[in-house]
Design goal:
343 residues; Ribosomal Protein S5, domain 2; Alpha-Beta Plaits; four-stranded antiparallel sheet; 24% strand
């Protein structure tokens, strides 16, 4: 019987500090992020194949590519991440270039703001590690995923997504000036997690965005002399991550909602395209229906928004958002990070 190797990694909600994990910021000031993984996943399977081709299959996007087996795959427009992961693992860990089929899917579309691309990279690294028994620890796997995206493939972005998908759960992350990362898991009581789920509404705006354009603007605000106000906004976003962490651990959901609101106001100042008229309208709609605060998850410009609601107002908030054609998405928080297995 043919052995099949699988992995899955959870997507994440960025609760606070977003943007301060960009190297341009953290290398000067140090960054701080708080995030939590949710029950939406990137899933990957590998099956060794006969013949002399590597096959990439993406059922959720309706795409397939067949590439001659080699120790160095040429970039493929539809499977850049896949080729990048394979090439790096061949280079660094000497995995053999033998034919296989890699099938991948993600529960959220690109541009969702839930870290889908980075989470997929983490899952792909894990499935190759399962297949070839690579000795990768959590920090090493997350850093490798970051290097593949940001260095090898030169994709703009920060560092939180790779570490969130690898570690899982609620984490407070510190991005130090020496480029190192400290992941501090938060010990959340289950009743607080359940109450947070009850008060939280996650909704897709029905718009997506290219986060790289927004990220480049944030990087410019840190490096250009004319970006003092935007840089100060990022400082306030970082401070907000500490406030959000305290509110979470104390189970003070009113304080949490207010902190999210303040952080969102500062976040919008850090780059011009983080919000737009549609996003602002959805945000005000949710607030009028009973949301205390909320934000875009990720770089902004589209994708998913989430809100912390007052008491049982989540039902009214969800109804109000649906009337504005947002897609309310059920979810739960997860504690498990990336997981791999074979059968």
């Amino acid at each position: 019987m043919q052995t099949v190797y699988r992995a899955k990694a959870p997507l994440r909600l960025g609760l606070g500090g977003g943007g301060t994990d960009l190297a341009a910021y953290s290398s000067r000031f140090g960054g701080a992020i708080i995030n939590a993984t949710i029950s939406m996943y990137a899933r990957v399977s590998i099956e060794p194949l006969p013949g002399n081709e590597i096959e990439f299959v993406s059922p959720d996007r309706g795409m397939t590519a067949r590439i001659p087996c080699s120790t160095r795959l040429p970039p493929h427009a539809d499977f850049l991440l896949h080729c990048g992961v394979f090439n790096r693992l061949v280079r660094d860990y000497s995995i053999p270039a033998i034919p296989f089929r890699l099938t991948s899917s993600v529960d959220a579309p690109p541009g969702s703001g839930l870290g889908s691309s980075s989470t997929l990279v983490v899952a792909m690294i894990a499935v190759f590690a399962e297949w070839h028994r690579l000795p990768l620890g959590e920090y090493e796997s997350a850093q490798l995923a970051y290097d593949i995206e940001r260095v090898d493939l030169a994709m703009a972005g920060g560092k939180q997504d790779q570490f969130a998908a690898t570690f899982g759960g609620f984490n407070f992350m510190e991005f130090l000036k020496d480029d190192s990362v400290l992941v501090n898991p938060l010990r959340m009581r289950q009743e607080l997690v359940s109450e947070l789920e009850h008060r939280c509404v996650l909704a897709h705006t029905q718009t997506s965005r290219y986060s790289s354009d927004i990220i480049k603007e944030q990087i410019a605000s840190v490096t250009d002399s004319g970006g003092a106000d935007k840089m100060e906004a990022l400082h306030q976003v970082k401070n907000g991550a500490y406030t959000i962490k305290k509110a979470l651990l104390r189970g003070n959901f009113d304080e949490l909602g207010n902190a999210l609101h303040e952080s969102w106001m500062h976040k919008k100042r850090s780059a011009g395209r983080i919000s737009n008229q549609h996003i602002d309208h959805l945000y005000e709609t949710a607030r009028k229906a009973g949301a205390i605060g909320g934000k875009i998850s990720g770089a902004g410009g589209g994708g998913y928004m989430f809100f912390i609601c007052d008491g049982d107002s989540r039902y009214a908030v969800a109804d109000a958002l649906r009337k504005e054609h947002a897609i309310v998405t059920p979810f739960s928080f997860t504690q498990q990070g990336v997981l791999s297995w074979h059968l």
